[in-house]
Each structure stands twice: as C-alpha cells, then as structure tokens.
Amino acid sequence: MIPQKLRRAVGLMRFAFQDAQKRARGVWYAGTSATRIGRGCKIANVQFSRGCTIEDHVRLVGEPAIALGVDVYINCFTMIGGEVSIGNHVLISQFVNIWGRAHRFSRRDVPIWLQYGKHGIDDQGYDIKPITIGDGVWIGPHVTVFRGVSIGEGAVIGANSVVTKDIPEYAIAWGVPAIVHRFRE
Fold first, then answer.
1. How does DSSP classify residue 139?
2. DSSP per-residue string spanning 58-103
3. What CA–CA distance (Å, rounded) separates 49 from 52?
4. DSSP state of 130
C-alpha cells in the first residue's frame, strides 16, 4: 500500500506538470522565432522553419519527412502526409488533404477486406511520390493534392479542387480535376 504522503506528492507533481503543459501548449520554438502549434495536432517527422503557424487539429506525418518553409500557415483540420516540401510564405486553408503516398491494393487473389490488415491497408505497402509546393502559394479550403504533384511559385488553388497534375507558377487553378483558368498578373 502506498503511503498517503507519497500519493499526495505524486499528485502535486502531476498537477504541476499539467499546469506547465497548459502554459506552454501552442508555442514551440524553431530557431529564433516562435512556431505556433494549436490544440489536438499530430506531428511526426516535420522540419519547421521560423514563424510557422499550425492551427488546431492538424495532422502532419512525414514519411519520410515534411519540410515547412518560413512563415507557413496551415489552417485547422488539414492533413499532410508522405514526402512533402512546402516553400516560404504559403497559406493552406482548412480541411486540405495533401498526400504523398497511397496504399497499394491491387491484388485480386485476396478480397479487399482481408488486405485491410489490423491497422490499415498495409500488407502490400505504399506508392510514395514527393509533393512540392512553391513559395507564396495559396491553397483554398477542401482541396486535395495527390502524390507526385508540384505546385509552382505564387499559384492559387481554388476551393474544393482536386490537384492531380503539376500547376505552373502564378497560375490560378480550380476544379475536379484542377485545371489552370488564368494566371496572376
């Protein structure tokens, strides 16, 4: 049986740790300027530069890595995974999906449900192709960017678009699939 004084000391230490976490939550430092991280984010294998802002409930999972440039803003509920390189001064709106990988599921001799495995369709591996997003890009809400795509410097991607092919510099693109409608002046 644990003595009362020891239980009280452990409880006080736990309270002090949680209090320190609450005060520190939301601010991580990268270099000399603060990178702000919102609540409920999942972040793994990400290289931050100075001045990034990651809003609440964003998922950044680098496989092998995600590189964020200077002053990148990522709005809430965005998911980025795979090998992704994001340039400087990029705006990514809410509910954006940027996936540099896709599950393999081509085996016909095994039913799709059995290929699912315990933790996802992982039995056949992944197709991985890097995604590059240039400096000064603005990606609107609910956009999906597929693997192997490059979005050129200064491009704007309209809301609800699905980017399946490269977008040139300073292009304004939207649609399913996203196509270039005009260029920024």
1. E
2. -EEEEEEEEEE-TT-EE-TT-EEEEEEEE-SS-EE-TT-EEESEEE
3. 7
4. -
Mind listing the pLDDT tens digit for each residue in 107-122?
A: 778 776 666 555 555 5
- For residue 174, give both structure tokens: 């939207």
Q: Which residues lie below 8 Å from residue 130, measured CB to CB, with a gap of 6+?
A: 82, 83, 84, 85, 100, 147, 148
Number of Cβ atoms within 10 Å of the Cβ of 75: 19
Dist CA 107 CA 99 (whole Å): 22
3-class SS letters over 111-127: CHHHHCCCCCCCCCCEE
Closest alpha carbon to 71 in 89, 44, 86, 98: 89
Catalytic residues: 103
The model carries a pTM of 0.77
Nearest Cα to Cα of residue 121 among 138, 139, 101, 136 = 101
- Tell me how far apart the alpha carbons of residues 169 and 133 are, in angstroms, rounded to a whole number: 10
